[in-house]
Amino acid sequence: MNLLRNSSFYGKLVCVWLLLYHQPALTQIIPDGSLPENSKIIEEGNTSLIEQGSKAGNNLFHSFEQFSVFAGRSAYFNNSLDIQNIIARITGSKPSNIDGIIKANGVANLFLINPSGIIFGANARLNLGGSFIASTANSILFADGTQFNTKISRTPSLLTISIPIGLSFESNPAPISIQQSVLNLANRKTLGLVSGGIDLKNSQLTAREGRIELGSVAEASLVNLDSAKEGFTFNYKSSPNFQNINLQRSIVDTSGNGNGGIQIQGKKLTLTDSSRILARTFRENAGGDLIVNTSDSIELVTGFTDNPRELTGLFTSTLGSGSAGNIRINTKQLSIRDGAIISVSSRGEGSGGNLIINASDLVSLSGVAQPTSQASALLSAATASGAAGNIVMNVERLIVKDGAAIAATTSSAGNGGSVTINAPQSIEVIGVSSTGLNQSSIRAGARETFSPDTFAIIKPTGNAGNLLVNTEYLSIKDRAFLSVENAGPGNAGFLRIQSSDISLFGGGINASAVSGEGGDVSLSSRFLQLNKSSIATSAGSSGNGGNININSDTIALFGSTIAANAERGRGGNIDITTQGLFTTLDSRISASSTLGFDGLVRISIPELDLTKAAQPEQRLQNPQVAVVCQGQAGVASSELIDAGTGGTPVSPSDSLDSSSGWRDLNSYSQEGINRVTQLASTKPTPLVEAQGWKRNDNGTVNFTTETDDIVPYGSLSSPSCIRTQSR
Question: Cβ contacts of residue 330 below 8 Å, gap of 6+?
Fold first, then answer.
């Protein structure tokens, strides 16, 4: 009974003991006593005042066994105003937990070095006039060759007046974690995090008009520091290996009135859940560049959003007269999925930046964001008077699928940018989005926009840029397309493709203009195949149609179209140079104008080199084919002019009626008649007409006298050059 009576007393005693001895300490900033003049900590309310330290010139050194700042508290480096760099090392084995405020006097830069790790919490804040460098390096190097090491030795540390020039890492460097933090520098300086892994979740890093450096390195690395106007730039040439950087619903931002630049260096960079990296300029100063270097890969994923402004991506832009910064990416693989974007843009008078991507393996774009249907994209855009920048890609392989896009566009007075893609192995542009609203595409153009203020469609007035593609293999499938276009009064650019093998299956290559001059299309290849596909140029209003120039060893058309059309202007010209043109009756080659003059169709077959002719990959059964162009050495060239819609004769040997309007220009020239007579008297070696072909083991093709299922547009016995003109 007495025990029960006294249980309340013992309970109260235990509670008092817990409060006295187990409440969190006011501070975990503990000097280690290793310096000539050690740090002194003075507690003033919620502030841990950090006094003294060892001074050498404009450098102030601090050394701590532990350094953590709890929520609701501040760590205040009370330095003199002549200090340029505060270097604080942590020599103990515990990570630094920063969940309060770190501040210093004047414009001093603060280096916080803890090889055991650094964690920034939800209440972490920076109140600094200089740069802030947080790192899990083992030592900091100085210009005179000395270093400030986190391993305390019996020999006192040599303190130097030199400037810091590097961060040295030994084995297994610890990571830096930022959880629900807002770290902000508002002083045009550098916010740098360098460690063995960086993880941002629901956080924001901001250095207004300054620099942000994120570096994730592995063992035996040296990161060099170079002085810059905005504080420091980091150099990773002496870092052989790297680790990962992850951003989940986080923002990295250096936007302001220009200058703000960003550099990210790691093994793999991952951005998910509307994470964004931004470097924008709002006024007259030029924006800084956004540079991403990874040894392995970059992955950008948006997934689900209702807000198109929260797309995952990398962005530079200008809203003023200053030019926007560039985006430069160097990686092995780049994956952009589910509506993520990499964008350079001009939304003011200044020009947009350039987007430059170097990938040693694969760049892949796929899908759209749900439910907005915003496509995954590489974009260069102009929406005001400034010109858009260019997109330049040097990749081994490129895949654009499921509604994704690569586009350089203008929707206003500024000119659109150009797209240049060099892919030694292959380029594949495939399909549409799951909603069916987005076609996979690579394009350069000027497009209409909708104004939510006036509920009107706004036409662009700038000229469109160009599209240049160089690759070994180009495949365009399932409603995907490549295009240059202009929906306003300006001109369309030109589209130029160089590829050994070009295959279109339900795809398109297009150049169009609503009222300006139509764009030209130029293709150069060994083998060109169109299956239910089109290559087309067009011009509306009084604009002249663009021209199509195709130079390919072998061309095969299956239910496909090559067309250069116009409305009131002149139709474009089509020039085809090939050793073999194979087609089906439901295919069409035309150069026409609805109300103006038609263009010309010229099909030229040079002296054949049968050992180099490529074979179409698909064969149709028993097509009915019209013979249009044949070749025979030494015979004068002819020109065929179609004056109506009667179509082509079944063969050149058939009679021509007045409705078709075909004529042989040599029949109107006595000189031509004499020339043909002279050639006929020389008794040329008889030629056996080829009836088919066969593929050799080495991939070449020989024509044979045996029949085949595919009949060539031209055989071996007719004039070597035929020019076709529609009236």
Answer: 292, 293, 294, 358, 359
* Residue 99 near residue 108, CB atoms below 8 Å: no
Read off the tokens for 575.
């020039």
| Identity of the amino acid at 169 | F
Q: Which tokens sit at 525?
A: 């290849």
C-alpha 515, offset from chain centre: 31
Note the pLDDT of residue 449. Answer: 79
**Structure tokens of 703?**
């024509």
Q: What are the beta bridge partners of residue 193?
A: 134, 214
**Tokens coding 456:** 């009107």
Quickly tell me which residue has 């405020």 as its tokens. 101
| Cβ atoms of residues 251 and 276 within 8 Å | yes
- Lookup: tokens for 380: 């260069």
Q: Do residues 260 and 281 lie in contact, with contact meaning Cβ atoms separated by under 8 Å? A: yes
| Rounded Cα distance, 259 and 279, in Å | 9
Phi-psi region of 320 (alpha: psi -120 to 50; beta: other; left: phi over 0): beta
Q: Which helix (H) or strand (E) holds 50?
A: strand 47-52
Where is 11: in which H helix or E strand?
Answer: helix 2-21
Interior angle at CA 357, CA 354 and CA 363, nearest 5: 135
The answer to whether the CB of 570 falls within 8 A of the CB of 594 is no
Contact 12, 39 (CB under 8 A): no
3-state SS, residue 404: coil
CA 45/CA 67 separation, integer angstroms: 18
Q: What is the pLDDT of residue 614?
A: 52
- The pTM of the full predicted model, rounded to 2 decimals, is 0.82
Contact 648, 662 (CB under 8 A): yes
**588 beta partners:** 561
- Per the CB < 8 A criterion, the answer to whether 437 and 482 are in contact is no
Query: What 3-state DSSP class applies to 377?
Result: strand
pLDDT number for residue 371: 87
Contact 344, 352 (CB under 8 A): yes
Q: Of 501, 504, 599, give the one whose Cα is nearest residue 547.
A: 599
Length of the chain counted residue by residue = 727
- Cα–Cα distance for residue pair 485/463, rounded to 1 Å: 9
- Give the C-alpha distances (Å, rounded to integers) separating 611 from 234, 553, 699, 720: 56, 11, 9, 19
Distance CA 69, CA 389 (A): 45
Burial class (CB in 10 A: 0-12, 13-18, 19+), 615: buried
Distance in angstroms (rounded) separating the CA atoms of residues 164 and 422: 41
Q: How far, in Å, are 168, 191, 475, 624 from residue 514 at the CA level? A: 60, 49, 27, 36
**Which two tokens mark 592?**
């026409």
Which tokens hold the place of 621?
């059964």
* Residues in the chain where the model's pLDDT stays below 50: 1-7, 9-24, 619-691, 699, 701, 707-727
Question: Which segments of 114-272 are extended strands (E)?
Answer: 118-120, 125-127, 132-135, 139-142, 147-149, 164-168, 176-179, 182-185, 190-195, 198-201, 204-207, 211-216, 222-228, 231-238, 245-248, 251-253, 261-272
Q: How far apart are CA 37 and CA 62, in angstroms?
A: 9
